Amino acid sequence: MTDVRHVLVLPDRDAAEEVAAELPDRFGVTEEPQLVRDALAGEDDAEDAQWLVVVEDPDSRLDRTALDDLAASYEGWLETP
C-alpha cells in the first residue's frame, strides 16, 4: 500500500494550528501533523503567507472529503494529489 500525504492549505498560522489540533479527535490521527509556512510567490511580508498542514496517512484511511470540509471551515482547502 502506498503512503498517502494530505496537504491542507490554510490562510494563516492560527487556522493551521487549530486544524492540526482537531485532527486527532476528529480523524484519529496519531502522528503529529507538520505545519509549514508557504510564502506566496513574490510576497516577502509574513502576513501574506499561507500555512500548510501536512498529514501522513500510511493506511489511506482518512476521508478526503471530510478533510476538505474541515479546511473549508477555516477558509482553506485540501490540495489535490
Model description:
- With 81 residues, the protein is an alpha+beta fold.
- The protein contains 2 helices and 4 strands; from the N terminus they run βαββαβ.
- It has helices at 13-27, 64-72; strands at residues 4-10, 34-39, 49-57, 77-78.
- The chain has a 4-stranded antiparallel beta sheet, covered by helices on one side.
- The radius of gyration is 13 Å and the shape is globular.
Topology, element by element:
Layout: E1 4-10, H1 13-27, E2 34-39, E3 49-57, H2 64-72, E4 77-78
Query: Which spans have pLDDT < 50 for at least 5 consecutive residues?
Result: none
- Across the major sheet, the strand order is 2-3-1-4
- The percent of residues in helical segments reads 25-40%
- What is the H-and-E element order? EHEEHE
Q: Tell me, briefly, the overall form.
A: globular
| Gyration radius from CA atoms, angstroms | 13 Å
Query: Helical element count?
Result: 2
| Cα end-to-end separation | 16 Å
Strands, count: 4
The biggest sheet amounts to: 4 strands, antiparallel
Quote the beta fraction: 25-35%
User: Which structural class do the helices and strands define?
Assistant: alpha+beta
Keywords:
81 residues; alpha+beta; 4-stranded antiparallel beta sheet; 2 helices; 4 strands
Give a brief outline of the structure:
It is built from two helices and four strands.
